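Cross-posted from the bioinformatics board.
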Amino acid sequence: MSKLTGAEILLESLKHEKVKVIFGYPGGSVLPLFDKIYGRKELHFILTRHEQGAAHAADGYARATGEVGVCVATSGPGATNLVTGIATAYMDSVPIVAITGQVKTFLIGNDAFQEADVTGITRPITKHNFLVKDVSELAKTVKEAFHIARTGRPGPVLIDLPVDVQLASSEFRYPRQAEIRSYKPTLEGHAGQIKRIAKAIEKSKRPIFYIGGGAIISGANHELIELVERTHIPVTTTLMAMGAFPDTHPSSLGMLGMHGTVYANHAMQESDLIIAVGARFDDRVTGKLDEFAPHARIVHIDIDPSSVSKNVKVSIPCIGDAKRILKQLLRFVKTAPDIDEWLIKINGWKEKAPLKYTKDDKLRPQYVVEEIYNATKGEAIITTEVGQNQMWAAQYYKYTKPRTFLTSGGLGTMGYGFPAAIGAKIGKPDKVVFDIAGDGSIQMNIQELATAVLNKINVKIAVLNNCYLGMVRQWQELFYKKRYSYTYLNTCNCPDLVKVAQGYGAVGIRVTKKSEVRKAIERAIKEPNTVLIDFNIEKEENVMPMVPAGEAINRMIGGMA
Amino acid sequence: MDLDSEKKVGKWKKMRKFTLSVLVENKFGVLARIAGLFSARGFNINSLAVAETEDPRVSRMTMVVDADEKTLEQIKKQLNKLIDVIKVIDLTKKDYIDRELVLIKVKISAKTRDKVVQAVDSLNARVVDMGKDSLTVEEVGDMKKINATLELLGPFGIAEIVRTGRIAIQAEKKGVI
């Protein structure tokens, strides 16, 4: 058998894993690898302008397609620049494989040039990581890395690859299967538990489905819809689960939690049975834990046992893949429980406290999001940055399909949305991809305009520009006596975002009036190029309703009196 | 479990010591992963003893943790989640034999020396080093025995204590002794 170098083995292994695109940035410790990437026709390499952009793009690709995203960076600063992107993927269970160069094996630990203990740094933010010191272990390591990244509760895996290992040679044989004795995720739910869930549903008077990102990851949306149509149990989704259940469905209560709908939060609090699917009872969802859903028994379906009873004590846990468990559940749940009274009550809340904003002539962000929804007929992939833009995007766009709303939910990473949009567009070239951004967030990875324009990656950016770091300003307004400490970014004066876009060769459009919104969005969609629309929105618009931090979720500002 | 019994959370919140036996891959960086997990999630580790098992590819970590039942459950789950962790055994709920080795340097004078040696003898412990101002006692035993030794030698004045941390092994179901 002929021998290959470590760099070649890595690329051959990626081919076996059906990797078609890599996002990355070169540097000294990945020179041998980049030399082998050079001229490889079957591999689409996207050169970003910052390693963080590469990590988020790989993440956006993974979330949009369900496949593993791959990013590459050099040792030291290249690798540390990936860290925010890796942590973002970790918090949201996104499968990415990050490959970093490392200094030569004999230099490791010597404080060599561009050396950093990357496996040490990324240990708490990866599902697993590897330092490959022996080239003969490389193929097996890549196999294991992809297996770990995409199975169970997915997550990022990092492979640290020293320069000399990239250059050393070995025979190449790609293992057919990853054999990791200590890693065998449970997929099938326990039959007894599933029957108990069915019985609990049957007996419930005020049940609610609480759906998390796990439902999207496992592709459980069809089973969920069937279960809901059979039982009429209302559904609320977390930020991570937007699209797992259609917002347009009559049983949908929209998002819950800090900026969820009033009726979703009230329904959670008054329910007698919460059926959580792939959700993790995050503090933004539960509010004050001691007062969370005081009358409810809790069913928790999740693939990660450590999520169960971590924050809230669970009555009926069921470990396994959400899709398989819901499919099993459909065998036992045949009819609707007697919940008419409950549904009437919820409808009363819906009528009393709908999601609303002031409808006047002013240019309001909620209107912009609604018009993006109307213009794209709900068919776009929406990515977001973090803060007010993210919440408005979640509240006012109606998501009907999974993998169409990509947002940094757990880590809350500003600067995520734009590079994630680039990754998503590469994975789903037929979709319109909109990054709904804020003027603060967009400036955190604005350099990727070069990546988008030069690679003809046609993404749209809607900047909801209020010249403020809006969400922090909102908290200062409500809880810090309007003392706007360093949240005024003055983006109205600097930079001129339209000119920045144009400087990169993208299309820049400024919108200052409500009447111009729809036209600008339609023009952006038609443009064959990357477009940035600078929406000069109302400066002190707030995201409402809102649960103040540490409050019970039914005590909302802007809620029911 | 029904809602009523869940509300009886007394046991759920009481802090106790638990002995866990954790089998891990004998690989570079595994100890760091476990130490990192404990520090990142704010778990308290009381003692930790690590060494190879009969299979050189596997190491055993015996750890004593301070936790309430809820935290213990999280510790076990989080440990199991680490790829390099093969098995987590909670010995606290089983019959097990535990031992710890302690070296105790006891202060002595001409006047107290004989009394200390007598005490050590009565404990079935051993004197392993004898100096002018101190002698070193080696004691092996379970927690009860170690505590008794420390209590008895304490009044003489203890200069230094070195402990290995607890190791433990599961007992056979119907052990003879």
